[in-house]
Design brief:
CATH class of the largest domain: Mainly Alpha
Helix content: over 70%
Number of domains: 2
Keywords: Membrane, Transducer, Transmembrane, Transmembrane helix
Structural class: alpha+beta
GO biological process, one term: signal transduction
Distance between the termini: 34 Å
Strand content: 5-15%
Shape: rod-shaped
Family: Belongs to the methyl-accepting chemotaxis (MCP) protein family.
InterPro entries: HAMP_dom (IPR003660), MCPsignal_dom (IPR004089)
Number of helices: 8
Protein name: Methyl-accepting transducer domain-containing protein
């Protein structure tokens, strides 16, 4: 048994109290009882001796008359009791008669108390106070000692029984007190180091302090059970959330990688568009130079027509010169037609690029929408690209319209120049119509000049638009570079989140293991 346990202390206390009580019963009670019994015996003996001496004094007075019959009758009454012997003496201390005695045993008028005898001698006096003799009585203590021994044996038996009863009562009482405490300790040990069964409850067998303790212990276990259940539920939810976060992190990482790839592709497309627009600008510069050359030629032709009108006398010479200039103009206009055809192809290529840019912007917008908040900046850039594609498409359409007009004008100019050649060939025969023809040709030339100047202006506008598109594409390229940087940062953040998720998953698993030790 554990010497530090409450049960051991209670049993030790009960044993000490019982042992002290038994010692008191064995030592103090017999001694006090013996002393009291001896005192009572001495008082009884004194009373008996006084009563006997008074009776024997009367017998001593009638001794002569009845020959001692009264004395003998009194002595016979003392047989078989505590009185062992009696000696009756006369006034001269001479032995008269006795019981189990033929002489005086001692002559001292006193009381002698030994272990086995109580000896008393008393003077006998009559009613007048005259001494009639003395009586000496020996009382046996055998019965007294036997009674004392029996009483001591009873005291020993009672003491041992009392000690046993105290120990039994202490054991029962300690079990009633310690039993529920041991049950509480066993339950706490099971929770701390065993199966952790929180479904068990303490039995409420009483309404005392131990019962109240059991009640509150049950309430504590019940609340602990509810707490563990809630922790288990929260751990399950955390586990589900961590799995969802891991899946989301993987998807986000994939989206970031995809966004980087798309950004790289967009940057390549922007570089291609920038190069194409620079080529268009160069072609526009060439077209502008050609248009200026055409305008200069038309102005020269107009001056020649004026000279024809003013110098009719030199018709043949001027006609030849005009025919030569007409041929040159036809060649240049044919060259202009070829240039306009090339510009038409370029504008168609620009239109195709604008359409592809618009489609790429639409795809980028869809990708940004699927990326959520992380794609908001990219969605703005995609929107700007889409708007710029629309503007480029519109400007290209306008250029194409202008080129169609120029081609129509060029074709008309070729026809007109053919008419001029015919007129020049017939100038010798139709001189009277030279003035009218010259005015008509002058007007046509002015119209051609105006169209050529419009073409030059459109070409300059196209150059400005192309430069603006190049600047915009440069800005888009810079934005795409920022998007690429953002994608890198997003991927780094996703990687860090993944590490945190792994750490959280480990914590959740540890929490599962911890609460799994309890049975709820």
């Amino acid at each position: 048994m554990n010497t530090k346990s409450i049960k051991f202390r209670l049993l030790s206390a009960f044993f000490i109290i019982g042992f002290v009580f038994v010692l008191f019963m064995i030592i103090a009670i017999p001694n006090r009882t013996k002393a009291t019994a001896e005192k009572v015996m001495a008082e009884n003996v004194e009373f008996i001796v006084k009563l006997l001496s008074d009776n024997l004094a009367l017998g001593m007075q009638t001794r002569v008359l009845d020959e001692g019959a009264s004395l003998q009758q009194t002595l016979d009454l003392l047989k078989g009791g505590m009185v062992r012997s009696v000696a009756i003496l006369d006034e001269n201390n001479a032995f008269v008669t006795g019981l189990n005695a033929d002489k005086a045993l001692f002559i001292v008028d006193t009381v002698v108390n030994t272990d086995t005898l109580l000896m008393v001698r008393r003077t006998m006096k009559d009613s007048d106070g005259k001494v009639q003799g003395s009586v000496e009585i020996h009382f046996s203590k055998d019965s007294f000692v036997s009674s004392i021994k029996r009483f001591m044996a009873f005291i020993w038996i009672a003491g041992i029984m009392t000690l046993v009863l105290v120990l039994v009562a202490g054991t029962v009482l300690s079990n009633r007190i310690i039993g529920p405490l041991n049950n509480s300790i066993s339950m706490l040990q099971d929770i701390a180091s065993g199966e952790g069964d929180l479904t068990k409850r303490l039995r409420l067998a009483s309404e005392d302090e131990v019962g109240v303790q059991s009640l509150w212990m049950n309430l504590f276990i019940e609340k602990l059970q509810a707490m563990i259940r809630e922790i288990k539920a929260n751990a399950d939810e955390l586990n589900v959330v961590s799995l969802q976060l891991a899946s989301t992190s993987s998807e986000t990482s994939g989206l970031a990688q995809n966004m980087k790839t798309k950004a790289g592709q967009s940057a390549s497309i922007m570089d291609m568009m920038s190069g194409s627009l620079r080529n268009i600008m160069q072609s526009a510069n060439d077209s502008s130079a050609s248009v200026k050359s055409i305008a200069l030629s038309i102005e020269t032709m107009s001056q020649a027509m004026d000279e024809v009108a003013q110098n009719c006398q030199q018709e043949s010479k001027i006609a030849k010169k005009a025919d030569e200039m007409a041929r040159n103009a036809r060649e240049k206009i044919k060259a202009l037609e070829e240039v306009t055809r090339q510009i038409g192809k370029i504008t168609k290529f620009i239109q195709d690029i604008a359409d592809k840019t618009n489609l790429l912007a639409l795809n980028a917008t869809i990708e940004a929408a699927s990326a959520g908040k992380a794609g908001l900046g990219f969605a703005v850039v995609a929107k700007e690209v889409k708007e710029l594609a629309k503007q480029t498409s519109k400007a290209t359409s306008d250029i194409n319209t202008q080129i169609q007009n120029i081609r129509g004008t060029v074709e008309s100019t070729i026809t007109e120049i053919g008419g001029i050649a015919t007129i020049i060939n017939e100038v010798n025969t139709i001189s009277q119509t030279i003035a009218a023809a010259t005015e008509e040709q002058s007007a046509t030339t002015q119209e051609i000049l105006r169209n050529v100047r419009d073409t030059s202006s459109s070409t300059e506008n196209m150059k400005g638009t192309c430069k603006q598109n190049v600047d915009t594409i440069s800005q888009i390229s810079a934005n795409i570079s920022e998007v690429n940087t953002s994608a890198d940062k997003t991927e780094q953040g996703v990687q860090k989140n993944r590490e945190n998720i792994i750490s959280m998953t480990g914590t959740v698993n540890n929490l599962h293991k911890l609460v799994g030790k309890f049975k709820t």
